[in-house]
Amino acid sequence: MNIHEYQAKELLAKFGVPVPIGFAAMSVDEAVAASAKLPGPLYIVKAQIHAGGRGKGKFKELPPEAKGGVRLARSADDVRAAATDMLGNTLVTIQTGPAGKQVNRLYVTDGVDIAKELYLAMLVDRATGRIAIVASTEGGMDIEEVAHHHPEKIHTITIDPATGIMPHHGRAVAAALGLTGDLAKQAEHVTTRLYAAFIGTDAAQMEINPLAITDDGKLMVLDAKVGFDSNAMYRHPDLAELRDLTEEDPAEVEASKYDLAFIKLDGDIGCLVNGAGLAMATMDIIKLNGAEPANFLDVGGGATKEKVTAAFKLILQDPAVKGILVNIFGGIMRCDIIAEGIIAAAKEVSLAVPLVVRLEGTNVELGKEILANSGLPIVSADNLGDAAAKIVAEVKKAA
């Protein structure tokens, strides 16, 4: 689960991380009122969407020469003009894709005189089972280019969660950022506080870009991108309340209501599978047969009629879908019950695209018999390879 920049900064401030003063705004008038609470004379008006690259982004509704989603303002009139441009309009960045995201919230923050921009992030390194700190002296909007062309400028320090953060980790971060003296001590403090926030909130990532050195010699977090482990949200009801559903794919939001793992893709063959590994194998074998999957969808081990029906509806919401492949291993659930659920779901959604079903596991023969006697044009498959070949052929035939 991701949160907005202003939410991330408010959260980090509670853990003692230095951030500039700022206020969220949901309207133009709120943005102007927020600037009145700040010292000035320089203000920063920032579009709040779950995507990076806002400063270099462009609004669909504005002229190409218009500024992006992060703007400097030196008066209340400048703040009003920036807020008017941004709110309700669609910001396209390198991370949103061509569709962009509509801006519904702003963050008006105090301006900071920047001497240098640094980069600092924390994330879970699953390869080592540790927390990884990523640091670079090359912070700012071009960090992706730095990582691609100058990987030697990206430094990684790992922390064993069994021991937690130690003083030498902070010193290593300071060295990676090229800091000495008082700035090195500040870097150690920021690293320690970020680690406390990371562990205390069950975060999956915390990206600070930039971590700025100000003209008066202070380290300040000027932007923060924070995401949490969704599986841990039951431990953090206060954080769960920060979720902004308008920033998420509507189909994925709907899927979460039924405890379905769903991710939309760009192909035309819908996949309904139980088990993440089996779902990935299903997508791979569809590609191997020369087609593209339209989604990743894992209904889990307890595939009930309700979940299967919800899954069918989700898949068919995508107008690009020209066929559906159901691949179920009936280990926990019996294949006959799954077959009944598939039939009921197909009837309820008035299925009008080819459907290929591969069942394996407990009561598989009974399940196949139920499908065969359903009166529906369901194509049964004997194995995964057979299923993929059949759905690709059915889609081509129907084209």
TrEMBL record:
Cofactors: Mg(2+)
A Pfam match: Ligase_CoA
Keyword Ligase: yes
Residue span(s) of domain ATP-grasp: 9-254
GO cellular component: cytosol; succinate-CoA ligase complex
Catalyzed reactions per annotation: succinate + ATP + CoA = succinyl-CoA + ADP + phosphate; GTP + succinate + CoA = succinyl-CoA + GDP + phosphate; (S)-malate + ATP + CoA = (S)-malyl-CoA + ADP + phosphate
UniProt enzyme class: ligase
Residues that coordinate or bind substrate: 274, 331-333
Superkingdom field: Bacteria
Alphabetized PROSITE patterns for the sequence: ATP_GRASP (PS50975), SUCCINYL_COA_LIG_3 (PS01217)
GO terms of molecular function: ATP binding; magnesium ion binding; malate-CoA ligase activity; succinate-CoA ligase (ADP-forming) activity; succinate-CoA ligase (GDP-forming) activity
Pathway info: One-carbon metabolism; formaldehyde assimilation via serine pathway; Carbohydrate metabolism; tricarboxylic acid cycle; succinate from succinyl-CoA (ligase route): step 1/1
GO BP of this protein: succinyl-CoA metabolic process; tricarboxylic acid cycle
Binding-site residues, Mg(2+): 209, 223
Annotated ATP binding sites: 46, 53-55, 112, 117
Enzyme Commission numbers on file: 6.2.1.5
Keyword Nucleotide-binding: yes
Signal peptide: none
Subunit structure, interactors included: Heterotetramer of two alpha and two beta subunits.
Known role: Succinyl-CoA synthetase functions in the citric acid cycle (TCA), coupling the hydrolysis of succinyl-CoA to the synthesis of either ATP or GTP and thus represents the only step of substrate-level phosphorylation in the TCA. The beta subunit provides nucleotide specificity of the enzyme and binds the substrate succinate, while the binding sites for coenzyme A and phosphate are found in the alpha subunit.
UniProt record similarity statement: Belongs to the succinate/malate CoA ligase beta subunit family.
Xref: NCBIfam families: PRK00696.1, sucCoAbeta
The protein, known as: Succinate--CoA ligase [ADP-forming] subunit beta
Organism: Sandarakinorhabdus cyanobacteriorum
Gene expressing this chain: sucC
